[in-house]
Amino acid sequence: MNRTKPHQFAVLLLGTWLFGLACTAKVTGSPGRVGGGVGGGSKADPVGSGSGGAGTGSNSDGGALPQGSGGTAVSGGGGGSASVIPAGLPPLTLDSGPVVMRRLNRVEYNNTVRDLLQTTLRPADTFPTDELSTEGFDTVGQVLDLSPLHTEQFETAAIQLVDELFALPATSPARQKVLVCTPQTGSEAVCGRQILAAFAPRAYRRPVTTAEIDDLMALVTAVNTAGNTYQDALKAGLEAVLLSPHFIFHVENDPAPTVIDAHRLDDFELATRLSYFLWSSMPDDALTAAASTKLLTQDSAEVGRQIARMLQDPKASALTDHFAAEWLTLQRLDSLAPNVTTFPAYDDALRTSAQQETGLFFQALVKDNLPLETLLLADFTIANARLATHYGLPAVAGTGFTKVNLAGTQRVGVLTQASFLMATSHPDRTSPVKRGVWVLERLLCAPPPPPPPNLNIPALVDPPAGATLRQTLEVHRSNPTCAGCHAFFDPIGLGFENYDAIGAFRTLDNGIKIDPTGTLNGVAFDGPAKLAPVLAKDPRFASCMAQQLLTYAVGRSFAAADGKAYADAVARNAIAQGKGQWRSWIETIAAAEAFQTRRGVAQ
Fold it and tell me: Is residue 587 a part of any domain in this protein?
């Protein structure tokens, strides 16, 4: 049986749906845009959105001036001390940024079909790589384009997934979950409608209308009457669901094309935001049931109850694997290639161990609801034997990871973990520039803007014999062209020079004793252990933590001035209420107006 002809009906339906969505502001909330644009359209900021991100810093040893940002004052102290907020809290006034309808990214697609179909297939692994926003996230709608290649691969994935489903034994729970009945000769349509009426709401993550099921049944009938078996016709109907924009996109409705005021999400839209925030996947039955009874919008405590439940689920590892990995740039280690002649201690086991350490460390912050500043001030890490040896710590038994006490060592918090130190180095040496820019971008949300256009920035030469990298950078800064930028991030990055390009502790650079002193906002520090409390007290730290989570969870940028002000107000109010801990912070983000509302763009 030629399967191409039946599935072409579903593909034609996909084209019709996408054309309709691209022309309907009621669904997209943005004129003529579906995600980043059908066919790879412009990523330009929509007029008046306020959602364009700040420029990212260079990964070379050049750079530009970081932007300042107001924020929340927090105290240091790794023992769970309460953060200190200045008197006079700002009003929680929602910024003007709109939410552009976004498609499922590759992680979300794989997780969604896993939970929808109980499949082990990972079709999105072959999809085009998702672009990252200027903040470093692949959940921001404006960069998630839909190209012709995406469309082709969605088709291929739908066919593979449905074919696999029908190939399962009749007793398979995965098959029975979707194929809720068996078509009987002469009354096939009765069962077909029952199957689609059960499957479509789960796939669309909301109730479906009779008209929507009628459309799908019309497709099934058309395929069947074109000379195909009813099984092939039903396959085409299921494929059509998987090719629908209501499956492929996070669809949220605006009340009218001309309404641009922020308005509340309905229960199913809120459930979807919550599940993709915490699980990078579709809502489960319990969350859907809460949405069906309107508990999420009518009971102010229900969202918190759902978060507590969902964070206990193994699927909550997605918050680490997706959010933390992108925020802390763990994916950079995938392409890491240190010079093994210069650093013979490096191997793939060290790289993977470093990634796992930071992921497990973040999980511990959330699981134990530790204060935000513990990210910087923790006197523990989660290490295995390979890392213990690399860090010069007491031996760790076995091959697994365990909590290790860092008291009295040269290690503290995330800033001395090998993942950060390796990801911000060159193959042959450290990079104070990369390390300084990382701190500004990831922890303070104050990224350096791009260098001025047409500026000829001389390359930083490797330190000659008898000179340290600090001395070489001093020479580099003597050039007025370079001084303006490097004066901002060099004093931060040079404080990490006791840690080499693979994160091992050292005391000498080129045979000369290392000077690990630096300054941040005029405050002097000596090495990462003294930088950490300075950062924890920085007025921008807590605000940046709110901004990072809001951007990831809502799917739009908060980098414009009013977005930063909103994130700052969320942070200040949360800490004032005693919610300055990681799990509480997640609950605060989910309760924020920006998370529970949307604003489209009027046509």
Answer: no
Same domain, residue pair 230 and 285:
no
Of 239, 247, 86, 218, which is closest to residue 571 (Cα–Cα)?
Answer: 86
Query: Residue 591: is it exposed, middle or buried by C-beta count within 10 angstroms (0-12/13-18/19+)?
Result: middle
Pair 249, 198: CB distance under 8 Å: no
DSSP state string for 476-491: HHTSHHHHHHHHHHHH
Coil, strand, or helix at residue 285? helix
Burial class (CB in 10 A: 0-12, 13-18, 19+), 303: buried
Q: Do 384 and 509 sit in the same domain of this protein? A: yes
Q: Which two tokens stand for residue 389?
A: 């040896």
- Residue 389 in any domain: the answer is yes
Regarding pTM above 0.90, the answer is: no
In angstroms, rounded to a whole number, what is the distance separating the alpha carbons of residues 531 and 161? 51
> For the chain, what's the residue count?
603
d(CA 50, CA 98): 8
Assess if residue 579 is contained within a domain: no
Distance CA 58, CA 489 (A): 11
- One domain for residues 293 and 158: no
- Comparison of pLDDT for 468 and 445, the residue scoring more: 445
- Does residue 591 belong to any structural domain of this protein? no
CA distance 370 to 347: 32
How many helices (H) and strands (E) are present in the chain, helices listed first? 27, 10
What b/e string do you get for 314-346 counting C-beta neighbours within 10 Å, with b at 16 or more? Answer: ebbebbbbbbbbbbbbbebbeebebeeeebeeb
Tell me what the pLDDT averaged over the chain comes to.
85
Greater confidence, 96 or 115? Answer: 115
Give the residue-averaged pLDDT of 174-179: 98
Looking at 478, 503, 535, which one is the last position of a domain? 535
285 and 357 housed in the same domain: no
Q: Which amino acid is at 331?
A: Q
Beta strands, E only, 301-445: 380-383, 402-405
Other Cβ atoms less than 10 A from the Cβ of 47: the count is 7
Q: Which helix (H) or strand (E) holds 8?
A: helix 4-22
What's the token pair of residue 311?
């964070």
Q: Name the domain boundary from 500, 535, 570.
A: 535
Residue that the structure tokens 């930083």 belong to: 460
310 and 242: one domain? no
Q: Are residues 272 and 347 in the same domain?
A: no
Report d(CA 174, CA 152) in Å as an integer.
Answer: 26
The backbone region for 466, taken as left when phi is positive above 0, alpha when psi lies in -120 to 50, beta otherwise, is left
User: 486 and 343, same structural domain?
Assistant: yes
Alpha carbons 470 and 572: distance in angstroms, whole number: 37
Domain that holds residue 494: 321-450+466-535
410 shares its domain with 282: no
Number of domains in the chain: 3
For residue 378, give the 3-state DSSP assignment: coil
| pLDDT tens sequence across 545-593 | 999 999 999 999 999 999 999 999 999 999 999 999 999 999 999 999 9
The per-residue pLDDT for range 135-159, each reduced to its tens digit, is 999 999 999 999 999 999 999 999 9
